Amino acid sequence: MIVEIGHFALVLSLSVALVQSVLPMLGARRGDQRLMETGTIAASGGFVLIAIAFSALMASYVTSDFSVLNVFENSNSRQPLLYKFTSTWGNHEGSMLLWVLILAFFGALVALFGRDLPATLKANVLSVQAWILAAFLLFILLTSNPFQRLDPAPMEGQDLNPILQDVGLAIHPPMLYLGYVGFSIAFSFAIAALIDGRIDAAWARWVRPWTLIAWIFLTLGIAMGSYWAYYELGWGGWWFWDPVENASFMPWLAGTALLHSALVMEKRAALKIWTILLAILTFSLSLLGTFLVRSGVLTSVHAFATDPARGVFILAILCLFIGGALVLFALRASALEGGGLFAPISREGALVFNNLFLTTAAATVLVGTLYPLLLEVVAGEKISVGAPFFDLTFGPVMVPLLFAVPFGPLLGWKRGDLLGAAQRLYFAAGCALAALVGILAYTGGTKILTAFGFALAFWLLFGSLTDLFSRAAFLKKGWRTGLARFVGLPRSAFGTALAHFGLGVTLLGIVSVSSFQEEVITTMAPGSSVEIAGYSLTFDRIAQRPGANFDAQAVHFSVRRDGVVMTEIDSSKRFFPVRQMTTTESGIWTHGFSQLYVSLGDPSADKQSIVVRIWWKPLVTLIWIGAVFMAVGGAFSLADRRLRVGAPERSRRKASLAEA
Amino acid sequence: MTRKAKRLYSIGAMLVVVGAAAGLVLTALSSSVAYFQSPTDLVKNVPGPTQRIRLGGLVEEGTVKRDGSSHVTFSVTDTVDSVPVTYTGILPDLFREGQGVIAEGTLGPDRVFVADTVLAKHDETYMPKEVVDDLKARGLWEDGKGLVKKPEETVSAAPVGAGS
C-alpha cells in the first residue's frame, strides 16, 4: 500500500510540475499576479509529493519489503539498519529519486524564501525549475520506476553492493547531489533573466548565495567521495581521474568560476553576459555528469544502469536543456547591457583571470573525459585517458592560477596597484622561499619540482591570510586596535581568506603525498615485521570476525617506533556471501596529519602468509582538511550580511557604506 | 587605453591561455593515453616498448602463479591467443581465474606484458566494457547471458592442427 501511495505521489508530482512549468511564466507574461502566485504553491506542493514518494521507497527499504523489485535487488534483511536507509539511494532508481527530491527541495526554497524577489523573476525561475523537474520525473516514471512490484515476493534480497555499505557512502551521494542539483537554481535564474531580457546587480546578489550553498555541498561531497575511495578501495590513491570523479569535478570548477564572476557582477555590474553563460555551463556540466554516471556509457561502480533506453532519454534531456539554453543565450544575450569599465590590473581583472583559467581547466578535464567516448563512437578505437594526461594538462593550467590567488583580494576594484599588493605579500613570499630552500636542502637538490610545489603551497597559505592581517593592521595600530579591527572585518573577507587558505592546505597535502610517500609490498606471516618510514610493523595475529552480513578476516598489527608500541592497526577483508564479493577494509592509523595505511592482499597457497601492502602517507589528511576549510570559507561568505538571503534594501546600503 | 584596445588585449590574452591549453591537450593525447588491445591484437601487432597498452581479456584458467611474495604471473586470453603478464603488487579483490581483467602497462622485449595496474572491478557480474565488446565481436558473449562458451571449451573444440 505504502508503495502504491509513493508511486501515485510521484505521478501526481509530475502533473504538478507540468502546471508549474506553464502557469507562473504565463502570469509573468501577462502581469497576472494570481497566476504567478501558483508557482509558490506548486513548488512547495511538488516537493511534499516527491518527499512522500521518497519516504515510501525508504520505508520499503527499512522494512525489507522484497515485493518491490528495487528493494529485492539492492537490499538484504540482514543489513545493519543504517545501510537499509542508505540502500534507498545506493541504486539507479533510488538515486534518481533522490536527485529529483533535491531539485524539488531547492525549488521549494526559492518559492518560500524568495518573497523579496521581483514577482516576474520569481515566477520565471520557478517555471524553468519545473521544466527540469518534469523532464527528470518523466525519466524516472518511464524508464526507472523504483516502485515496480515483484510477484511472488522473494524471501530474501540480493543485498546492497558491499562496497557501498560504508558510512562515507551513506552521506556522499546526498551531499554531491545537493551540490550538483543546487546549481540548477543558478541555471533557472539565468534562463529567467534571458527570458525577461533584464539583469542587474540584484540578480547577482540573488544568485550568489544559491551558488555558494551548492558549491559548499559539492566541495564536501567531492572530498567525501575522495576519502571514501582512498580507504575503501584499498589502493591508497585519493583521486583516480575516473570519468565519474571528473563528472563531479567539472561542475565544481565551473561553479567556482561562477562564484567569482557573480562577485564582479554584484559589485561592479560588469561581466553580465559571461556570468549568465557560466551559470548555464555549470548546470550543463552537472547534467552531463548525471548523463555520464546514470546512462551506463561508462562502466564503473557508479553505473547501475545498462539499459540503453535510459541513456538515450538522459541524452535527450541533456541536449534539450543545454541546447535550448544556449540558443536562448545566443538570441537574447545582446539585449543585456554591458557593465562598468575596469583596468586589467584590478580586482575585476583578477577575477577575470580566475575565470579564464578555471574554465580552461574545466575544458581540459572535459576533453579528457569525453575524448575516449567520442573516439570510440567515431573511430571504434578504445583508449584510456588517465592520470598522465591530466598531469600534463590540468596541472600546468592550474599553476598560474594558484600563483595569482593571493594577489586577487589585495587588488582594488576598478584599478589596482600590483606593486602595492606585491609589497604586502613579502611575508608570504619569504615563507615560500624558505620552503623552497628547505626542501631543496632536505632532498639534496634532487626534487626541484617538489620544492616548487611546497613553495607554491606556502605562498597560498600565507598569501591568503595577508589580506586579513593587513586590513587589521596589527603592526601599524598595535595588537589591541588590530584585534578589534580584525573582528570587525566583513565575514566575506574571512570567507575568501579561509577558502583560499584551504586551497593551500589541499595543495600541501597533495605535494607532500606525491613526493614523500613510502610504500612496501611484502608477504607477511604471524610474527614477522616490516620497516617503513621509521616505524616497525609487526604482524601479530590473524582472526575471523563475523559481521552482520559478512565474514571478516582481520589481521592485527602493532606499530612500534624505537621499540615503543605506538598503536595497533586492524586491517581486514570482508566476504559478503550474498553477492559472493570481497571488500578491503584498510587499516589506517592517523598520526598528526599523516597516515600509516595497511591493506591486505591474497593469502599464499598454504594460507600461512599473506600479501600486505603498506604505505606511509605524509600529510595526506590535509588534502581533505583543505576541502573542509574551503567549505567553511564558503559558509562564512554566505553569512556575510550583504548576501544574507532576502537582505532588505536598508541593510544592503549600510553594508556597502561599510565596505567603502 | 581605449575600450576597443582593451577588448583586443583581453581577447588576445584569452587566446593565448586557451591556445596553450589546447597545445597541452594535444601533446598529452598523443603521448600519454593508453590504447585498449586484446591478446590477439597484441600478438599480431607488436607495439613499441614505450607505448602504454590496456590489455583486456579473461584470466586464463590455471595460469595464475604467485612466487611466494607479491610477484604474480598470469596469462590473459581472448580464447584465440594469450599473452603472459607479470605484475608486482596486490591484485584486486575480484581478480579470479576465468574472469574479465584489464592489465595496464607495456609489452616487454621478451613478449611478456609488464603490468603496473590490474583492474577487475567491484562487482561480481562486472566485466570490463572493452572486454565484453571484444568477446561480443567474436560471438562469445551475449547481452543478458554473459559468456556463452567457456574459454577452455573453445580452445579444446578448436580443430587440431589449426595452428593454435
Automatic annotation (TrEMBL), chain A:
Alphabetical UniProt keywords: Cell inner membrane, Cell membrane, Cytochrome c-type biogenesis, Lyase, Membrane, Transmembrane, Transmembrane helix
Protein name: Heme lyase CcmF/NrfE family subunit
A GO-annotated cellular component: plasma membrane
Keyword Transferase part of the UniProt annotation: no
Single Gene Ontology MF annotation: heme binding
UniProt xrefs under InterPro entries: CcmF_C, Cyt_c_assembly, Cyt_c_biogenesis, Cyt_c_biogenesis_CcmF
Main location as per UniProt: membrane
Topology relative to the membrane: Multi-pass membrane protein
Domain Cytochrome c assembly protein: 89-295
GO biological process, one term: cytochrome complex assembly
Domain of life where this protein originates: Bacteria
Transmembrane region(s): 6-28, 40-62, 96-113, 125-142, 175-195, 207-229, 249-266, 273-292, 312-331, 352-374, 394-413, 425-442, 448-474, 494-516, 619-639
Subcellular location: Cell inner membrane
NCBIfam families reported in the protein's UniProt record: nrfE, PRK10369.1
TrEMBL record, chain B:
Region forming the signal peptide: none
Residues binding heme: 122, 126
GO molecular function: heme binding; metal ion binding
Keywords assigned by UniProt, alphabetized: Cell membrane, Cytochrome c-type biogenesis, Heme, Iron, Membrane, Metal-binding, Signal-anchor, Transmembrane, Transmembrane helix
Cytoplasmic-facing ranges: 1-7
PANTHER family per the UniProt record, alphabetical: CYTOCHROME C-TYPE BIOGENESIS PROTEIN CCME HOMOLOG, MITOCHONDRIAL
NCBIfam families the UniProt entry points to: PRK13254.1-1 (NF009727), PRK13254.1-5 (NF009731)
Family assignment from sequence similarity: Belongs to the CcmE/CycJ family.
Protein role: Heme chaperone required for the biogenesis of c-type cytochromes. Transiently binds heme delivered by CcmC and transfers the heme to apo-cytochromes in a process facilitated by CcmF and CcmH.
Name of the featured protein: Cytochrome c-type biogenesis protein CcmE
GN (gene name): ccmE
